[in-house]
Design goal:
Blueprint lengths: L3 E4 L3 H13 L3 E7 L6 H5 L2 E6 L10 H11 L3 E3 L9 H9 L3 E2 L4 H6 L3 H10 L15 H11 L3 E5 L8 E4 L2 H19 L4 E5 L5 E9 L5 E13 L2 E7 L2 H5 L3 H16 L4 E9 L5 E7 L6 H8 L3 H9 L15 E8 L1 E2 L5 E2 L2 E2 L2 E3 L6 E5 L6 E2 L6 E9 L2 H14 L1 E3 L5 H9 L1 H5 L6 H17 L1
Parallel strand pairs: 1-2, 1-4, 2-3, 4-5
Antiparallel strand pairs: 6-7, 6-8, 9-10, 9-12, 10-11, 11-14, 12-13, 14-21, 15-16, 17-20, 18-22, 19-21
């Protein structure tokens, strides 16, 4: 049993990990930047160590400082959360070499899935096909043009590293391809320190569906069903739900086939711990491999709600060498929806809104869960992602989960800053969303009219 774990992260995911550790009677060490001195995770942990200034490059991305904090605190393991160093194989390797358990996949598995371009090749070998595209990193504009000509427009240019929609551009012709190619490389270099990009066929009106996997060190690999993440803005997820309306209403056989494909990819990478295999699905029910997220996902709570399995605790227990303790297919009960609550102004092009929260009232009631690090009087730093938390609702069916989410969003009060709550209320009221008829282009189609209505409501 681990006695003490360091959380190499901040915000709501750090709070989430601390809670899981407390329930396992494991002591916790928080690291924090100077900008996060008053953050909730630093207050809730048993110990807290400042590792640098506000910018993540001076704090949460500093492997040397994190390892120093871990050695000073004499921890058994490090949980990286998501983002920052969570998918950094070098960080995992350093932890292993320092005799500190990394709560996530091994550095070997990370290297097998080194980046998204490498993952495409591994998936192909496992018999799980990605969209047509480049065989690895595209080195220059001429190669990009040749690839686009071979697969046919439209295409998507994607950064091989990172996530969150950074370093991604759609192109419909040679001009937009050249512009997007250079823009994506520049953005990827700034965001991830890796300018590598690859190109794949852009499947329009598609559905983004991912499968949660768990794998222990005894060779057991299972999936825990799918999550539909098609409600996105600029390739950044906004609302997620499980089960997927597309699969439930139209392609029920997909769950079994995609679940098997997800496990095949995990087996090929000799994967352990929690991870997510992401797919794109077209309107005809054809699915393609996208990538493997080698960490806990932002949207993991909705899977927890419908399965009753604490994924963060499972991560910790698997890292300790414990067997998974789950046999056979996992039963999915009910329906769960998650809305990401961001400190952004939906009336001003979703501009980030750091600042002081003057008033904070969290929704509650049966079937309502809130994972957040925010509180009244908290000052949101300008250095990090704008997400304040995740609102999750659970119901016996999709209608009940939606009704609870609409009610909970209406109760949620965050005063002093702008948030995305009004925009998510508009999504929950949209007739197509209510029917479960949507794709990755849903938000772009909704935005114009919804924003006008929201502005009228506000005035």
């Amino acid at each position: 049993m681990f006695e003490k774990i360091l959380i190499a992260n901040r915000g709501e995911i750090a709070v989430r990990i601390i809670r899981a550790c407390k329930e396992l009677n494991i002591r916790t060490v928080a690291i924090y930047s100077e900008a996060d001195a008053n953050s909730m995770h630093a207050q809730l942990a048993d110990e807290a160590i400042c590792i640098g200034k506000g910018p993540s490059s001076d704090s949460y991305l500093r492997i040397d400082r994190i390892i120093s904090a871990a050695e000073i605190a004499d921890v058994d393991a490090i949980h990286p959360g998501y983002g920052f160093l969570a998918e950094n194989s070098h960080f995992a390797d350093v932890c292993e070499n320092c005799n500190i358990r990394f709560i996530g996949p091994s550095s070997r598995a990370m290297n097998a899935l080194e980046n998204k371009a490498v993952s495409r090749i591994l998936a192909k070998k496992a018999g799980v096909m990605p969209p047509p595209g480049s065989d690895g990193v595209v080195e220059n504009a001429q190669e990009a043009l040749a690839t686009a000509k071979r697969v046919g427009y439209p295409v998507m240019i994607k950064a091989v590293a990172g996530g969150g929609g950074c370093g991604m551009r759609a192109a419909h012709n040679d001009i937009s391809l050249l512009k997007g190619f250079h823009a994506a490389k520049s953005e990827a270099e700034k965001a991830f320190g890796n300018a590598g990009v690859y190109i794949e066929k852009y499947i329009e009106s598609s559905h983004h569906i991912e499968f949660q996997i768990l794998a222990d060190t005894k060779g057991n690999i299972i999936h825990l069903g799918e999550r539909d993440c098609s409600i996105q803005r600029r390739n950044q997820k906004v609302v997620e739900e499980t089960p997927s309306p597309l699969i439930e209403n139209k392609f029920k056989d997909l769950r079994k086939r995609m679940g098997k494909a997800a496990i095949k990819v995990a087996e090929a990478a000799q994967y352990t711990n929690a991870g997510t295999v992401e797919f794109i699905v077209d309107d005809k029910g054809q699915f393609y491999f996208l990538e493997v997220n080698k960490r806990i996902q932002v949207e993991h709570p909705i899977t927890e709600e419908v399965t009753g399995i604490d994924l963060v605790q499972k991560q910790i227990l698997i890292a300790m060498g414990e067997p998974m303790g789950i046999k056979g297919d996992v039963e999915i009960k009910g329906h769960a929806i998650e809305c990401r609550i961001n400190a952004e102004d939906p009336f001003d092009e979703f501009r980030p809104c750091p600042g002081r929260i003057e008033m904070y009232y969290a929704p509650g009631g049966r079937g309502v869960r809130l994972d957040s690090h925010a509180y009244a009087g908290y000052s949101i730093p300008p250095h990090y992602d704008s997400m304040l938390g995740k609102l999750i609702t659970y119901g016996k069916d999709r209608r009940e989960a939606m009704d609870k989410m609409s009610r909970a969003l209406g109760e949620f009060i965050i005063g002093g800053i702008k948030t995305t709550i009004p925009f998510e209320q508009a999504i929950l009221q949209d007739p197509n969303f209510r029917r479960g008829v949507y794709s990755t282009s849903f938000v772009e189609q909704l935005l114009g009219g919804a924003r006008r209505e929201l502005i009228e409501d506000r005035t």
